[in-house]
């Protein structure tokens, strides 16, 4: 009997669960979509039990599938998952949710963020690498819960992220057992010491967050329990399978893309389009107020990275397919759109899409999503190319900041769902003036979890073994070169677009936002 390893990725739009064998070949996989709700403009929330239900249902499908393939569910020797690093809910003593789950797509804390940043506190940048608060930080969600849900907060024992919630539920843990790995910890944005991997009492006091609500910090590969009998019955897998603490989705995607050291660029083309660069620690030039970057700890010891983001980057693609094209049930329509858009000239004939469907940030906090400069000659393919380019323009601004700080971006790895689109990858190569490379496993987070599961349960002690194993299972399967003529065209368009958004449209955005409240 061989060994199998189970991993899951609890992303914003779906939960994916997969089983790999000892050669790290995929045996079977299942995924289910999640449900997001929008109670008010700028608000995005979920029920964290939706994540758990999706995971359990996927596991329940996988157990008979393994038998059909001649494998036994009892061969699974570890379970490890990853999840969204910027999203939390409060749980009670029994480990049950008592608040909604709020993630990075939400903008309800914008006013609180502005007030906190106006204080100009130096401690945040010094201890976390993040000099300013952001509406996407869980630290700000925790403040919002305390101010707006006082009754529920009397029952909150701990704050947890989505993957730890799934893992502790699979293990049958209670609220006081709540945990967080050191990478996901850095997803809080504020409230911790990033290099020491501990909560910061001084920051938590400033933030008004009670330290008793913070989960214990563990290593990603620490065992936090085993599959409990109740979940064994629901999933069809035997009780007693070791469950590891898990990691953040971005951290695992980077490792799964071969990023093991400093100075490498990664585009995590998921729901929140994230443009990351790995570093050996805090880079002062990138941790200045106003840069709009987030600094995080990686999964492995002494690894760090900065990332800029378009919060609705990947979600904008789904929005266009589902809501504009009315193809919510047809995942293949992405290819139809890109095939058509490939025939549209670079620059989309002047049509622009601004991807701020849940609001802007920083100086463009009032920005909203919109198409501009359309004529009767334009169709859904022009609009689709404009959506892709709209995200790319924000990436260009981030790339300029990285390069100004001395980060080499001649080669950028792309990962997650968006990496499968050849047109999208070529557009990024041209807009960023860089080689865009893709590896065999574009959704590498789940595989990375399984590699960690194998390492943690084998008794190995050398972290280098994880790097060697990952390096051996990833393989290049896409390389997109920049076209110099297209690089020049996009740079000209970028300059015009930047002035349009930052200067010309400021008053228009304020007026547009105000129109939503006209009765």
Automatic annotation (TrEMBL):
Superkingdom in the source lineage: Bacteria
UniProt entry keywords in alphabetical sequence: Kinase, Transferase
Domain Carbohydrate kinase FGGY N-terminal: residue ranges: 4-256
Coiled coil: none
InterPro entries assigned to the protein according to its UniProt record, in alphabetical order: ATPase_NBD (IPR043129), Carb_kinase_FGGY (IPR000577), FGGY_C (IPR018485), FGGY_Carb_Kinase (IPR050406), FGGY_N (IPR018484)
Xref: SUPFAM superfamilies: Actin-like ATPase domain (SSF53067)
Record keyword Transferase present: yes
Pfam families membership: FGGY_C (PF02782), FGGY_N (PF00370)
Any one GO molecular-function label of the UniProt entry: kinase activity
GO biological process terms, semicolon-separated: carbohydrate metabolic process
Keyword Kinase: yes
Domain Carbohydrate kinase FGGY C-terminal: from-to ranges: 268-456
Similarity comment: Belongs to the FGGY kinase family.
Protein name stated in the entry: Carbohydrate kinase, FGGY family protein
Organism in which the protein naturally occurs: Sutterella parvirubra YIT 11816
